[in-house]
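Propose amino acids for all 259 sites.
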């Protein structure tokens, strides 16, 4: 069984055919899918999906850095009270994005640090989105690492040194469709990364792996990412599947018997 550690299957792109999308995922061998939240407006749809498919879809909760605006404290208050009531398997996605908009950089950092504290309080892994600021994000984790913090650098695109720094802090690399893009040049890092810190993800509906690049992504495409990882690491794809699944089960504290 594969685990997709990052897919936004509750978004409107899947309104018409979510049942078929999930059936295709299961036919491809994907047995569990983690759903990172975006903001307070996506909570209802995400939780509905989790309730409809309790053994397949696992909700996470957080505020995405691209949705940190002036009102981010109100958003975080909603996230915090939801977290206290519901069942969530991780905090995210959070992090910092300096690619789209620098206006709220300070607020993004504050929001990230607030969510790091929530992860510590609830002993949950944190799912990090970092774009155009990987060193800054790594430094923030380093200065907040008290030995209890765990999590994922989602869509990790760093070099070997950044990969080592993340793994040395106990953090995982979430790898998706981007590793199949020729110009991404991630082969050396993927080959080098310690096996215990690698995870598979799709980030559906975004970042569809080759040869489906540009189309809507879905969890059923996860084996395409696994095959690329197998090629870079010169390992059989069954080994990739098994260790990434074991890593995800351990990180999210999901028992294999619950399949
Ligand atoms: Zn995402």
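Proposal:
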């Amino acid at each position: 069984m594969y685990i997709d550690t990052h897919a936004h299957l509750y978004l409107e792109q899947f309104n018409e055919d979510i049942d078929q999308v999930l059936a295709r995922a299961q036919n491809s061998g994907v047995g569990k899918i983690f759903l990172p939240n975006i903001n307070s407006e996506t909570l209802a749809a995400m939780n509905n999906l989790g309730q409809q498919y309790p053994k397949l879809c696992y909700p996470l909760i957080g505020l995405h850095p691209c949705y940190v605006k002036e009102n981010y404290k109100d958003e975080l208050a909603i996230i915090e009270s939801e977290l206290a009531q519901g069942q969530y398997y991780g905090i995210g996605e959070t992090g910092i994005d300096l690619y789209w908009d620098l206006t709220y950089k300070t607020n993004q950092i504050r929001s990230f640090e607030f969510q790091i504290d929530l992860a510590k309080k609830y002993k949950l892994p944190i799912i990090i989105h970092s774009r155009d600021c990987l060193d800054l994000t790594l430094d923030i984790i380093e200065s907040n690492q008290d030995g209890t913090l765990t999590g994922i650098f989602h869509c990790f695109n760093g070099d070997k040194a950044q990969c080592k720094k993340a793994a040395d802090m106990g953090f995982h690399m979430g790898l998706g469709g981007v590793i199949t893009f020729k110009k991404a040049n991630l082969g050396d890092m993927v080959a080098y990364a310690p096996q215990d810190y690698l995870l598979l993800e799709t980030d559906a509906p975004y970042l569809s792996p080759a040869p489906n690049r540009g189309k809507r992504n879905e969890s059923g495409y996860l084996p395409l990412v696994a095959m690329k990882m197998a090629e870079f690491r010169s390992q059989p794809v069954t080994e990739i599947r098994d260790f990434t699944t074991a890593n995800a089960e351990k990180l999210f504290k999901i028992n294999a018997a619950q399949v």
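The domain at 2-258 is CATH 3.20.20.140 (TIM Barrel). The first strand starts at residue 2 and ends at 4.
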